[in-house]
Amino acid sequence: MQKRSFSPVELDAADPLRSFRSEFVINDPDLIYLDGNSLGRLPVRTASLMRQAVEQEWGVRLIRGWNEEWMALSERIGGKIARLIGAEPDEVILTDSTSVNLFKLAFAAMKYQADRDIILTDSLNFPSDLYVFQGLDAILTNACFVDVLKSDDDIITNEEFLLDRIGKETALVALSHVAYKSAFLYDMKRITEGAHEQGAMALWDLSHAVGAVPVDLNGAGADLAVGCTYKYLNGGPGSVAFLYVRKDLQDKLINPIWGWFAEQNPFEFTREFRPAAGIRRFLVSSPPVLSARATEPGLDLLLEAGMDRVRTKSVAQTEYLIRLCDEYLAPLGFELASPRDSAIRGSHVSIRHLEAFRINQAMISPPDGARQVIPDFRAPDLIRLGVAPLYNSFQDIYDTIHRIRQIVDGGIYQKMSGKREVVT
Ligand SMILES: Cc1ncc(COP(=O)(O)O)c(C=O)c1O
After folding, report:
1. Which residue, of 248, 268, 303, is where some domain finishes?
2. Is the confidence at residue 3, as pLDDT, over 90?
3. In a designed cystine with 133, which of 146, 164, 199, 249 is the match (CB 3.0 to 4.6 A)?
4. Closest CA to 41 of 399, 398, 388, 394
């Protein structure tokens, strides 16, 4: 049997995706960036595309740009995202933000099933998602109640309990496919089928899943989905999000915001709204063209790499990270706060420590002049290490763990103030 290598140099040398790193702007080669699950790196192609979009498309073509390129953007790029998430091109569209899309689709689902009134979600879901559901509860008086299943350990949700909780009053089961803190990866097919057995719909937030794990919405029979493009898709800060509505549902659902881009022909300027057929009826407004343009190069890189290869590398890297944590960080008081089994884990790993905040600070702003490492902190005690296989190396992971060890072992974190910025 061949001996398994744990040398980061050997692992990087054997990595078939290693050339993708040079597709990203890495101006500071000393910086280790493990936060691609919050904001992905800038693709080199995006920098030049943005220059062209601003100087040529906007600067020269002016209003003509709408017919030449911009009107088709939301559907064209949506069609590319569809290839990453197992959907047909006309089932996905680039539009609005994740939270706004979630509101539109959750509202549509509640309206469609007026004889049911429960949205079932869980405590691992992203707070903005929970707020959107609470908002629906507040405005759909007596027609929407939010049931939040509590995870026992904040790491996984017991899927049996979840399935048992779906009943005849459940309209919608709404979950994040990969949980934002622990990276717990749900069995989308099983839960979607469980929802359907009870006559409910399933809505998936793919923000931490798209570009990180293979997703098969059609294979799972999913009804609805939303997701962001600024994490593993590398679309840029606050870049436009996307939504998915299964084909057979599109003309049955009502988008609660009747903006002109959801009209059959916005430039006829009719006084009465006539919803467009198909996925376009879930649009609202003029697309933020520059932001939409910026989402494409990162998407193309993932399509070139192929999600199977991305997933294989992500599993190898997160397993490597956990192995190093067990060896070097567990003796220093760290605990794994993500599933150990890669079959139910996305592409980030959270580790727990009482001093997580100050350790995180010392990684980002080293008081001892060491190299910087950027992860992120999630209250109260988690350091979240995001692995983006297109640009993170095994060496990044090895060096990060050894840097954390040095910060704790050497008491370096004690030099940090513990004062929190707005964004952690
Ligand atoms: C899982 C998940 N859902 C929703 C959001 C919110 O996205 P947006 O700011 O586009 O509404 C985020 C943001 O990080 C997220 O991680």
Report:
1. 303
2. no
3. 146
4. 388
